[in-house]
Amino acid sequence: METKEIQKLIDFIAQSGLDEVNIETTDLKIKVKRYGSAPVVSAAPAPFSAPAPNTLSASAAITAATAPSAPVEPAVSSNLVTIKSPMIGTFYRASNPETPAFASIGDEITPGKTVCVIEAMKLFNEIESEISGRIVKVLVENATPVEFDQPLFLVEPI
């Protein structure tokens, strides 16, 4: 199954109102569940006794679809805390282009303060800090796609 076909499947499920879909073929097994507003895709090659040519290409397509879009940089110091993306979507530092960013390098944040928004399925989800600290580094460019659990900010706890 191609990456485009998987994306079409996700879009169809999002519009249909279904909460869960399982598809299993001889080469591939896909399970799509909706948690809240964004579907989560779990895909794995189906168990088999001998490798088939289509299985390898399907596995490669799944790996390409789930690989992070940007390299993850290691924390510079061990005392830094990472704020990670709770969902797949598009990362925005501000609510619109004319307003200042929710959080910039050097800003102090407290629990409950919005640090960014992530658009998922035409819904803008405010991402709030769960810690107090100072933003040390923004790890994602504005208006770029992010994956679930992708690091967004490095914070020095206060």
How is the topology of this model organized?
Elements: H1 3-16, E1 20-24, E2 28-35, E3 38-45, H2 53-66, E4 81-84, E5 89-92, E6 108-109, E7 114-120, E8 123-128, E9 133-138, E10 144-146, E11 151-157
Antiparallel strand pairs: 1-2, 2-3, 4-11, 5-7, 5-10, 6-9, 7-8, 9-11
In short:
This protein has two helices and eleven strands.
Keywords, separated by commas or semicolons:
158 residues; alpha+beta; OB fold (Dihydrolipoamide Acetyltransferase, E2P); four-stranded antiparallel β-sheet; 2 helices; 11 strands; 18% helix; elongated
What do these coordinates show?
- There is one protein chain.
- The chain is an alpha+beta fold.
- The protein has 2 domains: 3-66, no CATH class; 81-157, Beta Barrel (OB fold (Dihydrolipoamide Acetyltransferase, E2P)).
- The chain has 2 helices and 11 strands.
- The chain has helices at residues 3-16, 53-66, and strands at 20-24, 28-35, 38-45, 81-84, 89-92, 108-109, 114-120, 123-128, 133-138, 144-146, 151-157.
- The strands form 3 sheets. Strands 4-11-9-6 form a 4-stranded antiparallel beta sheet, with no helix packed on it. A 4-stranded antiparallel beta sheet has the order 8-7-5-10, with no helix packed on it. A 3-stranded antiparallel beta sheet has the order 1-2-3, covered by helices on one side.
- A hairpin with a 3-residue loop joins β1 and β2 (28-35).
- The longest helix has 14 residues, at 3-16.
- The radius of gyration is 18 Å and the shape is elongated.
- The N and C termini lie far apart (48 Å).
- The model is unreliable at 48-75 (pLDDT under 50).
